[in-house]
Specification:
Elements lengths: L2 H10 L4 H27 L11 H4 L7 H13 L8 H17 L7 H19 L14 E2 H27 L4 H15 L3 H15 L8 H27 L2 H9 L4 H16 L1 H14 L9 E2 H8 L9 H30 L6
Parallel strand pairs: 1-2
Length: about 350
């Protein structure tokens, strides 16, 4: 162990007999927990099982039943999507990841990227829904698992962000009291109710207001509710960024003779958004996890697929493994967003005097 590390340990963990005793006690407890968890998750785990047989996992001394995940991973990842066609949601999920990867480098932030996203989303919905290129039609009611979670989160963020910008600008528009009042009412009303209530309204009440003969599938209704909900929260984050800019930035843009929209698009919004990257990404992460609430209205997202899997009498009692698997998938996406936002914040703040 290097000198700086030893100095840090002495200064923070062993800088007195009380701190030393507490540190040693915590290390003992953590070591015991780590050994028990490793024994359950790895050493005593059951990694393979005969089809539909959970007897080995129920034997005395057996640890985690990862064989259950191996046998049910298709339903866990793709829900009720037809088994013979599950290569399509698998490819759709891969396309989502590819779109995220292409969008990450700043050198690709050009107008062409919007075209890539439009084409990519068209391919994804074509794969999921079928009816083109000889693909069998699969209604949205049979979609499930990871693709549904990615669709709800991605479309939710993409649809909510421009609406949030307009709401934030509208709430700041002192010269347009009617628009400002409408934006305030919308933001406060949506933020004052839980997402579950909006999902119920979209699922149960919205069809009652549609013209006769016009129907919107449940997934689309849930998507609309998520977009409206996320926009209200994002709008307040963006408004915070707008308020944090000094008046000199607004005055400098006015001195250049820029119109309102050019001033906002070229001067104000880029700076405001850079300042609020952490809370923006925090809201994105929260929205990604909140998509799991659609299980309340019977949509087979990733969490609902896991919940349905462990209801099977053959696999009763193995919910921990299913939920840990789902948690790991959520963690990978959320952690990736968090790390990317930290790197983006550093890149965008280079050359900015503090």
């Amino acid at each position: 162990m290097t000198g700086p590390a030893l100095s840090w340990l002495r200064a923070n963990l062993f800088n007195g007999w009380v701190n030393s005793a507490v540190t040693l006690a915590l290390l003992y407890i953590l070591a015991g927990l780590a050994i028990d968890i490793a024994g359950w998750a790895v050493a005593d785990a059951v990694w393979s099982l005969p089809a539909g047989d959970s007897a080995a996992c129920r034997a005395e001394g057996a640890g985690a039943c990862w064989g259950f995940i191996a046998q049910t991973h298709r339903f866990l990842l793709f829900g009720t999507y037809p088994v013979a066609e599950q290569w399509r949601p698998a490819l759709a999920s891969a396309l989502f990841v590819a779109l995220y990867a292409v969008s990450a480098p700043r050198r690709f932030w050009r107008r062409e990227l919007l075209v890539v996203w439009v084409v990519g989303l068209a391919l994804i919905f074509g794969l999921m829904g079928g009816g083109v290129a000889g693909l069998t039609v699969v209604p949205a009611s049979q979609w499930g698992g990871l693709p549904v979670t990615l669709i709800l989160a991605t479309i939710g963020i993409a649809g909510a962000f421009p609406l949030a910008v307009l709401l934030a600008l509208g709430r700041q528009a002192k010269g347009l009291p009617a628009i400002r009042t409408l934006c305030v009412i919308y933001i406060e009303l949506i933020r004052g109710v839980p997402l579950i209530s909006l999902l119920f309204m979209a699922s149960v009440m919205l069809p009652l207001f549609l013209p006769a003969g016009l129907t919107i599938d449940k997934l689309m209704r849930a998507q609309i509710a998520i977009v409206l909900f996320a926009a209200a929260y994002l709008a307040e984050v963006i408004r915070g960024g707008l308020q944090s800019l000094p008046k000199g930035q607004y005055e400098a843009a006015d001195a250049l003779g820029l119109g309102y929209w050019r001033k906002m698009g070229l001067v104000i919004l880029p700076q405001a958004l850079r300042l609020v990257i952490p809370p923006l990404v925090n809201t994105f992460i929260g929205l990604f996890k909140d998509t799991s609430l659609v299980l309340i209205i019977g949509i087979y997202d990733l969490l609902n697929a896991a919940k349905t899997t462990v209801v099977d009498p053959v696999w009763l009692g193995f919910g921990v493994e299913a939920y840990l698997t789902v948690a790991a998938i959520f963690f990978v996406f959320c952690f990736a967003m968090s790390r990317y936002s930290q790197r983006l914040e550093v890149d965008l703040n280079q050359g900015v005097r503090r």
